[in-house]
Amino acid sequence: MAMTAVARETVFALRRQIAKIEGTLPERLAAPAAAPLHADANTDLTIVRRGIAAALPDAFLPIGVERLDAALSGGLPKAALSEIHGSETRDAGAVAGFALSLTSLILKQTPGLPVLWIGTSEIFREAGFPYARGLHASFGIKPEQLLFSEAPRLVDALWVAEEAARMTALAAVILEIRGNPQRLDLTATRRLHARAQAAGRPVFLLRQAAEPEPTAAPVRLIVASAPAVPAVPRDTIAGPLAGSIGRPAFALTIGKSRTALPGQFTLEWNPDERAFDERWGDEKRSEGRDRTKNPVPVVSLSGGGKDPAPASGAVLAFLAVGSPLSPAARDQPSRPQRAAHLGPRRAG
Predict the structure, then answer these.
(1) Burial 278-297 (b: 16+ CB within 10 A, else e)
(2) d(CA 253, CA 263)
(3) Which tens digits make up the pLDDT trace of 287-315?
(4) Do residues 222 and 257 touch, judged by C-beta distance below 8 A?
(5) Of 23, 107, 147, 310, which residue is the least packed, with the fewest Cβ within 10 Å?
(6) What pLDDT does 285 receive?
(7) Please, what is the Cα angle at 204 between 142 and 21, to 5 degrees?
(8) 3-state class of 223 per DSSP?
(9) 3-state secondary structure of 95
(10) Long-range contacts of 46-51 (CB under 8 A, 24+ apart)
(11) Is 259 helix (H, G, I), strand (E, B) or coil?
């Protein structure tokens, strides 16, 4: 009987360890009243099981959406490895945009620090690089703050990510990988997670066209693009802007979390306020309008002009260029008068 009990305890301990690694242990413990973690008894304390460690509320990055932050017990862990998945290759833009949105939230807390984006040559050829001008306009990230490291092989990208994850001089590290390579196994993600915990900085693992698999990341989010549907027409100084498009939107699914059950959300990114908003359904849209008079920021006029550009006039039909009656044809120089660089290139 004693040997059976010991064997049961061993098997139970192994199962708990596997559950911790895979993130399927949604345990949440309240802070004991007899042993507060801070001297201030009025502080709202929450202990979230992270192996054998305890995490405080300030150890999380709030996304800014009440329901999502509540589901994640405060947000994404700051000092940890977090996975952001795109199920298909066409979701690469949405995954990158969501990662940049999270980076914008991080830079609000750690301004001035750079962010390192690591990827293989394959992923950068397939998905491209973020547009430099759009970084500041949409996310408030200066182009010089976002550093890129293009590695020829996955093993090189993992080495750069491990070395960068330990650096406190970086606000965050982003590692973008395509598919399910064999080298990105449980051991590799454990190393990244441990480096992130030691440095107190987040590491975002972007998985493009990948299937979920066991990793050491406490949180896995699956991101896809959502239709940009404006709640109300955008307003300008001159009046409503007809035919305007809504804000960028993301369809977010919690694929794995140690503190939350699976859930689905539709988030809109506000590039003016640098914040997320949850999209309201049609039945709640009227309630959402009561919260603020103008939920969409006013669009400024272009180029310092006092009035909007006038509408285009009547469409006129012009003669074809090759027609002998057209002025363009009469003004065309003869062949000897043409510039040399306009002629066909000759070899030899």
Answers:
(1) bbbeeeeeeeeeeeeeebbe
(2) 6
(3) 444 444 444 444 444 444 455 455 555 54
(4) no
(5) 310
(6) 43
(7) 165
(8) strand
(9) helix
(10) 46/73, 46/74, 48/73, 48/74, 48/258, 48/259, 49/20, 49/25, 49/258, 49/259, 50/77, 50/218, 50/258, 51/20
(11) coil
**Whether the predicted pLDDT of 46 surpasses 80:** no
Per-residue pLDDT at 51 = 41
Task: Give the containing element (helix H, strand E) for 29.
Answer: strand 28-30
> CA angle 275-279-284, nearest 5°?
130
Helix axes 154-165, 186-199, angle to 10 degrees: 20
pTM equals: 0.65
What letter represents residue 109's amino acid?
A: Q
Enumerate residues 6+ apart whose C-beta is below 8 A from 172.
102, 103, 106, 115, 116, 201, 202, 203, 204
Q: 10: how many CB neighbours lie within 10 A of its CB?
A: 10
- The pLDDT assigned to 288 comes to 42
pLDDT attached to residue 189: 95
**How confident is the model over 53-86, as pLDDT tens digits?**
445 557 899 999 999 998 888 889 999 999 999 9
Cα 315 to Cα 171: distance, rounded to the nearest angstrom: 54
275 phi/psi in degrees, rounded to 5: -150, 160
Quick check: 231 pLDDT over 80? Answer: no
Q: Greater confidence, 346 or 192?
A: 192
Dihedral, CA atoms, 63, 75, 194, 274, nearest 10 degrees?
10
DSSP designation for 171: S
Q: Distance (Å, rounded) from C-alpha 92 to C-alpha 87? A: 9
The residue written with tokens 């299937």 in the block is 211
Segments in the chain forming alpha helices (H): 2-22, 66-71, 92-109, 121-127, 132-139, 154-165, 186-199, 285-291, 327-330
